[in-house]
Design brief:
The chain is an alpha+beta fold and about 200 residues long. About 35% of the residues lie in helices and about 25% in strands. The protein has one domain (about 5-170): Beta-Lactamase (2-Layer Sandwich). Strands 1, 2, 3, 4, 5, 6 and 7 form a 7-stranded antiparallel β-sheet that branches. Mean pLDDT is about 80; it is low at about 55-60 and about 90-100.
């Protein structure tokens, strides 16, 4: 992740989480970017670029390998070019379980696309441990957050709607298993060396 964008994410996410969850009860804010198109030149999924979580101890930023498609609340925000809110009953009936897979404590989800001049770079996803947690003011703030993040995104990371065709992604556990099986022999040897050397 470029240093400029990382700094923007960190500063912005910390301020937003202070507003959403000043008592550190369980809110996370994640930035998912459009994956670079492959041979067919279409964006097929989103990947996690940055995540900040409010906890009792502190705000922690971190990234793990997570990919989302149109089955997720984040994906729906990108597909429909606008704000998308998911509550537990809707998540279950509409099949939006994928987004909850990496954050099982999330009872409320809201996502806003990162858009500039009718092109898209990704999605900002807010997860809250409490059901029906988001007010109109919260959703407005989330959309403002997505607009501010757009400032730090490079020109090559923007895609017009016709180049976005998100596919369905498997659950996170399946993704992690598949990614582990693709680990290169070099990576495996390095991991073994780290274990031996303590």
């Amino acid at each position: 992740m470029p240093a400029c964008f990382a700094t923007t994410c960190e500063l912005l996410c910390r301020q937003v989480l202070d507003v959403f969850d000043p008592s550190r009860q369980g809110v996370s804010l994640s930035v998912f970017k459009c994956a670079v198109p492959q041979h067919d030149q279409m964006v097929r999924h989103l990947f996690l670029e940055y995540r900040a979580e409010a906890t009792q101890e502190d705000l922690e930023g971190g990234v793990q390998k997570i990919f989302l498609g149109r089955e997720s609340v984040a994906g729906q925000a990108l597909v429909h070019h606008g704000l998308c809110v998911g509550e537990p009953s809707r998540i279950q009936t509409d099949g939006f379980l994928q987004t909850r897979g990496w954050n099982p404590l999330a009872a409320s989800l809201a996502a806003a696309p990162i858009v500039r001049a009718q092109e898209f770079a990704g999605v900002v996803l807010l997860a809250q441990a409490q059901p029906q947690a988001f007010t109109t003011q919260h959703l407005t703030l989330l959309q403002q957050c997505s607009q501010l993040l757009a400032i730090g995104i490079s020109a090559s990371e923007w895609y017009p709607p016709e180049r976005i065709a998100l596919c369905l992604m498997p659950p996170q556990m399946s993704q992690q298993t598949a990614l582990a099986s693709l680990q290169s022999p070099f990576d495996q040897q390095c991991s073994a060396e780290e274990v031996r050397n303590g």
